[in-house]
Design brief:
- The protein has a single domain, classed as Nonspecific Lipid-transfer Protein, Chain A.
- Helices cover 30% and strands 30% of the residues.
- It has 4 helices and 5 strands, in the order αββββααβα.
- Strands 3-2-1-4-5 form a 5-stranded mixed β-sheet.
C-alpha cells in the first residue's frame, strides 16, 4: 500500500459516531519518496479528504511515509512516534488524542 492509497482508504475507516460535536481540519504532511500533503475536514459527522495544504488546519501532523504506513499497519502508534521525535504535532493536541477513535484500524 502506498501513502496515497492509505489516505484514500481512511474514509472507509471513519467512525462518524465518535465525532459528535467535532468540527476540525487535520493536516498531514508526509515526508520522503512517497510523501505529500493531505487533509481531512470533519464536520457534522462527515469526513472529506483533500490533497494539498489546508488554509487553517486545527492540527498538523508531520512524519515520514514509512512511519505513517507503520501506523496504518498497526506496527506502531502516534504516541510512540512523538516520544521518539519521529512525528511532530502543531495545533490542537487534544484533537490528536481523539483521532484514534475517529478512525478505526
Amino acid at each position: 500500500m502506498t501513502v496515497s492509497e492509505s489516505f484514500e482508504a481512511m474514509n472507509d475507516r471513519f467512525n462518524p459516531e465518535n465525532t459528535a460535536g467535532t468540527t476540525a481540519v487535520i493536516q498531514y504532511n508526509i515526508k520522503g519518496d512517497d510523501g505529500g500533503s493531505w487533509y481531512f475536514t470533519i464536520k457534522d459527522g462527515t469526513c472529506s479528504l483533500a490533497v494539498g495544504s489546508a488554509e487553517k488546519p486545527d492540527l498538523t501532523l508531520e512524519l515520514s511515509g514509512n512511519d505513517w504506513l507503520d501506523i496504518v499497519a498497526g506496527k506502531t502508534t502516534g504516541v510512540k512516534l512523538i516520544m521518539f521525535g519521529k512525528m511532530k504535532l502543531k495545533g490542537d493536541t487534544g484533537l490528536a488524542m481523539k483521532m484514534r477513535s475517529m478512525f478505526s484500524s
